[in-house]
Structures
1.
Amino acid sequence: MGTKKNKILLTGGAGYIGSHTIIELLGDDSFEVVSIDNYSNSDAATYDRIKKITGREVKFHECDLCDEQKLRRIFSEEKNIAGVIHFAALKSVPESVEKPELYYHNNIDSLENLLRCCADFGVHHFIFSSSCSVYGNIDQLPVNENSPLAKPESPYADTKLKGENMLREFTEKHPGFHAIALRYFNPVGAHLSGLIGELPRNRPNNLFPVITQTAAGKMKEIVVFGKDYPTRDGTCIRDYIHVSDIARAHVLALKKIMSENDKPGYDVMNLGSGEGVTVYEALQTFEKETGVRPNYRFGERRAGDVVAIYSDSSKALKELGWKPVHSLADMVNSAWKWQLHLEEKN
Ligand code: NAD
Ligand code: WQD
């Protein structure tokens, strides 16, 4: 008989970061995974790709987390859930500005339902996907977990801030509950196999999918938003971090809280590479690594963009032993490999 595995309920498991995290969890023999997704921004075929990479099955349920009754049935059917990683959310900043109610409903009501289920079914370990967007427009760099949280720049960012607060309050009210909110900076790239990656349903607005789709001829050009920012080359600075590094941090965070039952509570941690990269440097690295030069031109600044933001991730190193291992070259090469895989299939 094998050793008993810890069953992890992962919401949004068919999505970009969730699918990479399933791969990392399945690489660790102590975990089994159950995914919940409503496929509003993904596809159940992701689970087949995960099986191809890991050789292991992922159990999954189709469910909208806003449907509390259905969610409760899953908790009751699955029993013995050892921990939850909550990725499921809508994440487009411009869409959230257009449809704030949808974002508050989807991102906040789902978290409320999930936390109620955790309380009722005795689940004590919880990892929440938060975002560097909770820091808003900040000018003290690098950003650490004690940096002030400015006013959210979008309803999306506000759902992350409200989500963190809700989780902290819930943890305070439920002795024994242990939660970590992980604040990701800019997750990019794809699994090194090139078999899974980011799959934007609509026209992408994040830099990396815009670069790879333009390079593949799917989009006409990249518009670089602004060239007169007070940075080394006039373009904005961000902290890009490989999605598999982000995924691995979840396994470490889970292991930490599961091994520290005597120290429950709420914590937050930044996950970034710690390096600021300009838009222009990202484009140059893409061209140097792949040999492909996507069309680009400089355009107006994009409303709401911060000039520069990058992370001090020393807390994650100290608390989780987490250090990113993938370079910017890995990020562009894997993102391109994934794009080429998509082209081959179509
Ligand atoms: P994604 O859209 O690829 O994945 C989210 C998944 O959740 C999708 O599969 C979607 O179908 C599912 N989902 C959404 N609402 C749901 C609901 N009500 N019920 C069930 N399933 C639902 O996004 P991602 O990039 O993998 O992001 C994962 C998490 O990380 C999100 O919470 C996001 O806000 C956060 N985050 C992402 C980034 C980023 O740049 N990708 C940065 C910081 C934080
Ligand atoms: C990166 C840089 C753009 C597209 C967003 C969310 C944040 C987090 C990560 C979820 C910026 C520039 C982009 C283009 C460009 N997500 N750019 N031309 O805005 O840093 O962060 O994703 O939590 O909350 O706000 O990411 O990829 O959109 O932009 O010049 O076509 O690329 O101006 O400097 P951003 P991004």
2.
Amino acid sequence: MRDYTFYFIFSILLICCYSCVQDQHLTDETPPNIIVIFTDDHAKNATSIYGSDLIQTTNIDRIGKEGIVFTNSFVTNSICGPSRAVLLTGKYSHINGFKDNHDQFDTSQETFPKLLQRNGYETSIVGKWHLKNKPTGFDYWNILIGQGHYYNPTFVNNGDTLDYEGYVTDITTDLALDVLENRDQNKPFCLFYHHKAPHRNWMPDSKHFDEFADKDIPFPETFYDDYSSRTSAAHLQDMEVVNMNLSNDFKLQPQHYESHTGTGGMATFNAEVGWAGNYNRMNAEQKAAWDERYDPIGESFKEAKLSGEALDKWKITRYLRDYLACVKSVDNNIGRVLDYLDKNELTENTIVIYTSDQGFYLGEHGWYDKRFMYEESFGTPHVMRYPKKIKAGQLSDEFVVNIDHAATLLDYAGIEVPAEIQGTSIRPLCEASTPDNWRQSVYYHYYQSTGWHTVKKHYGVRTNRYKLINYYEDNEWELYDLDTDPNELSNEYANADYAQIVLDMKLELRRLQQEYKDDSFL
Ligand code: CA
């Protein structure tokens, strides 16, 4: 009898202890794990949760459906390196010092991964870094060199250079899963899972060769924008789909064309040499699969001798079929990470953010690339999931900006947000309590006028209805009424009916420049 009593009491104690451990594991105070999934050049228009009918991005959509979708998420400076510096610091480019891709990030400055690390987090980054310096604030880093390569990429693993065999999106994901599998179980983790894809030159994985092979790609509504009411900047850009190069962009081999065409955004870049370099990274097996898919495309191009609109259609089709296949690979690989979280009971207490360093043109205005403050590249996909604190199925159209990530994640981690951070925690938006004084306008500043694509420097402000842009080196202005002209085709700056709006928008612009301490244009 005494033995039974002992076992009974012992069992009750065991259950109590187990419950305590479980409770401890899931208390409100338990710091969340964090995964920042960051892609390069992914447009909202190629994300099904934003209404794209070009592609199904099932796993990215899943993050949004199980959390919150931001329909008005913007970047401060629409280009790769600067956007990454903004993510790390929560500060505009003129403050963090990385204004364009010619700069080098000052890694001695404060970043939110450093703050997480000092507060007990295990921090890691895998994939694209592109800040031209060794990462700081990460316990583990394994990063691509510069832009990296799609096939058989070289990574730098905490200082050691390593060549990998395979496709970059798969490899980056393998590394992310390794980080999760080998994490310190006594610490919360923050993983930066940063893809190269879908950056130019859009070389798909052979697994996805067939998926978009026959996909009809319609011309975007604004493909033949003639820039008639715009200032000189739109006329001077070199980022038109029709000027992509036959080799590196469309992957034709020399035997497939009589003469090579396309400026490709930089006339001095030897695209044929660039393409040969990318192609020759592939091993024999990869090349065989590639040739089987792409040689017939080249042969039929050579035979068809297309011109005019038919040639334009061929180009937008070729561009987007490859771009979408690269996005598909990202989406499938994100599914592997979400599955890992599920299988390891990490889903509930892990914040997962999916976003891109900026948006991208998929032929709108005739363009590829980014840089301009127009909606396609100023906006970016942005979904976020955290089952413990964020209710599923939410959608927010409030203005959120990439300066907000640092403050948001520190807030959720229970770490004081330094006053120097210029962004604001979007936690209230995620938890259905939007403050009355939430921002009503967004400030933008782009700097890289030299090198690729020749887009003039500009700053601007966007409100719910209007957008004012100043190409300030020549003091050329544009004003768009997004209610009546959502495609931004009609510059109303000189229209007398908008004179008061222009004045109001200029005041708002100056107010934001003071608030963010931006005098870098002077
Ligand atoms: Ca980018």
